[in-house]
């Protein structure tokens, strides 16, 4: 029933093709992130005036906020070629040597998920970034020799969802670091209006606002929802995406008023349902939703934090009263987990109109099946 991944921030292969058509190509087309845009633009202009490649750039932030787009824009603004690779693709130092030595002068090298680069390759990168040189080691043990190879001056643009995982030496070699933050609803509305124009979709102002409000602060999600809403508008309405059309469409696709997706909801439901609102450690929480701790931390938490549904404390993750409210539940008296009262007494399991019916989180049939399980393998504790 749920369109899985509809509001996940990661992009599928098919979607990448679609996204390519919507990507902003220049800094002026890039919506929002005003400060980052301004700083970058000054830096790029300065470098161009000096006729030298600009400093290496590190872009951090949750998925779907425009890191790859910015990397492409940097190359575009500098009018230089862009070479794209990613941390996981560089398994051995040799992989990186091959890439670096093939760079042409001034080229931008985009290294996505840079925190996942193999350690030996990372060490090579230090000298490449600093001195435009790589040392290729031939042989092993005492007889090994290092052959220095020149690398053309280039600009490394690194992107990461987890800047905290970068080693100090690597981080220090970036002259410019920018953190991308979630977008405000009016910025997302602008992203949507721009995309609608490119796609030939008629989108009213209130339609854009409605979709923007459910896009989790993330342009990628906004564009994806626009696609679904457009389909609906064409099939079930007169093709115009108004607020009502957007609402009706997103209800069908099971996107709630805050745009929470399956993982977000699973995390919240576990936190509230299994752990009485917390505090609970990240690992325990992740295990209970069947995910890696990093996935919960990088993908679900940033937006839950930002939406004020979850907080991090020294003792673990805690659900806020707003989280209970969003799930259609009464906050328990002592939300910090000291209360051992059963959270879901037999009678109180379903709030009026279904546990998660608040603002269309589930479709109209919001009631739980008898087993007390939520759809999508959701998280209520058995039989409590
Ligand atoms: N600031 C922005 N203005 C307009 N569209 C954006 C912006 N940021 C992201 N997008 C859209 O969102 C999609 C995902 O952005 P992307 O750069 O791939 O994010 P990331 O690399 O951070 O995951 C892009 O295809 C683009 O259409
Ligand atoms: Mg990217």
Automatic annotation (TrEMBL):
Residues 53-186 form the AAA+ ATPase domain. It catalyses: ATP + H2O = ADP + phosphate + H(+). Residues 3-183 are annotated as: Large ATPase domain (RuvB-L). Gene3D superfamilies: 1.10.8.60, P-loop containing nucleotide triphosphate hydrolases, Winged helix-like DNA-binding domain superfamily/Winged helix DNA-binding domain. ATP binds at residues 22-23, 64, 67-69, 130-132, 173, 183, 220. DNA binds at residues 312, 317. Residues 257-384 are annotated as: Head domain (RuvB-H). InterPro entries: AAA+_ATPase (IPR003593), AAA_lid_4 (IPR041445), DNA_helicase_Holl-junc_RuvB (IPR004605), P-loop_NTPase (IPR027417), RuvB-like_N (IPR008824), RuvB_wg_C (IPR008823), WH-like_DNA-bd_sf (IPR036388), WH_DNA-bd_sf (IPR036390). Residues 184-254 are annotated as: Small ATPAse domain (RuvB-S). One of its GO terms (biological process) is DNA repair. Its EC number is 3.6.4.-. GO terms for cellular component: cytoplasm; Holliday junction resolvase complex. GO terms for molecular function: ATP binding; ATP hydrolysis activity; four-way junction DNA binding; four-way junction helicase activity. Mg(2+) binds at residue 68. Belongs to the RuvB family. Has 3 domains, the large (RuvB-L) and small ATPase (RuvB-S) domains and the C-terminal head (RuvB-H) domain. The head domain binds DNA, while the ATPase domains jointly bind ATP, ADP or are empty depending on the state of the subunit in the translocation cycle. During a single DNA translocation step the structure of each domain remains the same, but their relative positions change. The RuvA-RuvB-RuvC complex processes Holliday junction (HJ) DNA during genetic recombination and DNA repair, while the RuvA-RuvB complex plays an important role in the rescue of blocked DNA replication forks via replication fork reversal (RFR). RuvA specifically binds to HJ cruciform DNA, conferring on it an open structure. The RuvB hexamer acts as an ATP-dependent pump, pulling dsDNA into and through the RuvAB complex. RuvB forms 2 homohexamers on either side of HJ DNA bound by 1 or 2 RuvA tetramers; 4 subunits per hexamer contact DNA at a time. Homohexamer. Forms an RuvA(8)-RuvB(12)-Holliday junction (HJ) complex. HJ DNA is sandwiched between 2 RuvA tetramers; dsDNA enters through RuvA and exits via RuvB. An RuvB hexamer assembles on each DNA strand where it exits the tetramer. Each RuvB hexamer is contacted by two RuvA subunits (via domain III) on 2 adjacent RuvB subunits; this complex drives branch migration. In the full resolvosome a probable DNA-RuvA(4)-RuvB(12)-RuvC(2) complex forms which resolves the HJ. This is Holliday junction branch migration complex subunit RuvB. It comes from Frankia torreyi.
